[in-house]
């Protein structure tokens, strides 16, 4: 079923192809059968509720039915991802050959790298990300790297001054040696780095790293490190009344392509440090605000048609990535509507069986492929090449002639002034000021959209609604690699932020279920809705994590007996859903163990980050609590890393997430033991079979919690306080249940 996008062109000039997954027919057939099974389930539930002997048992059945409805809703939405998944291939080697695609004609590239906190995001690692992008296999004079520093930290600026010097050595080194790992830290840590010429540059890198880390540790910059008069002047900006929340904008050109050359005389890319103005009285919209400032500042300075957005930890692992993106951006059959080319987010340092499901295969790989069969994948916030046009037009322009001289400041007049010239810098400072956006459409119909902590999802959704398309580009060698959180608490905190951000999309005035269906296509609306309502997993998860178990302990049957025909319906629904998920996971280069861990994290998220996200979201709605963007820590703690690499769960924090998990682990274990003992003595094991299986399944999944509560002595064990609270909550649940069932 190969459907070539470039149909009609000569094969050797086709830049990309797309192929629909050969298994779609199976998926569709399964969807039909499964829907019938779901209807049968609801019918059986209705019967059971009507037949139910007592009030508590009919209430329990109602709750389970509610959980099943949510599961069915999520299942139905997910069918959109399975309807027409597409796999693409691109041919960057053909770029140079074809007429009209000479290297000189390739578009310029602006790279945006955001950082927000030097103590959670070590400047050395931000520098590594920037260097990997500066070293793209792309004409250097066409590349500009912009670093947005939301911490407004002179330590980060210092790190980049160092990086600018090191780049003069690193870029020619990569070019001459044909190195693929262009992130220095990754290269020097890999077996590819071997003696000879490497030693010299390695020493240089380590000295730079030492200086950056030393300065960070000290919290200030030694005079001996500030080499020029110019640099002294720059750092003076930090002297008076400068704080993270309140400071003027600072824009510093560290390298200018037309003037600065590397040690072998080649031009270097532009490198620009940007710390936008901050004031306590203006909302800054977190990363979305930072990106919009970069869009405008770069619009004034270099205005490249192609824009790469990258998180500070996502370094380039394939210097060809921009060329791969070009294979789509230059394709005339899609280019006028193409808003972006999304690469998957991939991660380094994931442990052997990926205990925390850090790869998030569904989010980062399986589902984007599913959406690619329609209008294209959502925006993942990083590893994404945009066509600049999409930031300035709410819908794709026809014809694509940019008219960007509007009052919104997205001036695109190309100027021949140096980016260090006073005129350019003055304009750049202006568009980076807090007041600039007042009365403009930035954040609503222009640039990255505001109003959600998941600005990426929100923005992608708006672009698709307005008719833009996107493409998922997933080459065999990961194009970008980032850091994953390595403690369970960090994983869940990040996830809670996403849950809240996605709820903000779901409950905005343009929710996927209303606007999405009206303005976009039904399948796209379903895909977006599936994520917008992501946090609603908390409903079935929380219900199934305690109710059948407590009912088991008190011997209240809620499901058909093993000998009943309806038993097979339940077995079918559970087993095929799991089997299909497992097959999808393995086809996406997963293993069974990784899949097992992934499904466990799905359940864990349901009763922790999703649940608490929902609670916090509604508390905010009624004005009780607020929320911000809690930046994920990328700092390496040796002990935590050791635990993570050893594959053991890290519960070493007094986190309310863990109280929730501990409570569920206790309830399930107690119910399983008490339930089996009671059913056995009363000869009712047949009636309680499904409930025994559910509790048993949860208990097996909870093994790391029992282990970390009782058997482990390291710092990753469950804190005593968390255990006490969990036991107390579990006790309370059983007491309430005792009251309910005995009255
Ligand atoms: O006020 C802020 C907060 C964050 N960031 C940057 O945003 C990026 C992502 O932050 P991180 O803490 O790493 O969040 P993650 O949850 O790992 O990021 C995912 O989720 C975010 C939305 O919640 C997206 O923006 C990201 O692209 C996506 O990778 C980092 O480079 C930060 O420096 C800012 O620039 N300003
Ligand atoms: Mn991150």
TrEMBL record:
Keywords recorded for this protein, A-Z: Cell wall biogenesis/degradation, Glycosyltransferase, Membrane, Transferase, Transmembrane, Transmembrane helix
Signal peptide feature range: none
One BP annotation, GO: cellulose biosynthetic process
Topology term for the membrane: Multi-pass membrane protein
A GO term, aspect molecular function: cellulose synthase (UDP-forming) activity
Active site, renumbered: 150, 456
Spans through the membrane: 31-47, 59-78, 531-554, 566-586, 602-619, 657-676, 688-706, 722-741
Gene Ontology cellular component annotations, sorted alphabetically: endomembrane system; membrane
Record keyword Glycosyltransferase present: yes
Binding-site list for Mn(2+): 287, 311
Entry's localization field: Endomembrane system
Binding, UDP-alpha-D-glucose: 120-121, 150
Keyword flag Glycosyltransferase: yes
Origin: domain of life: Eukaryota
Protein's name in the database: Cellulose synthase-like protein G3
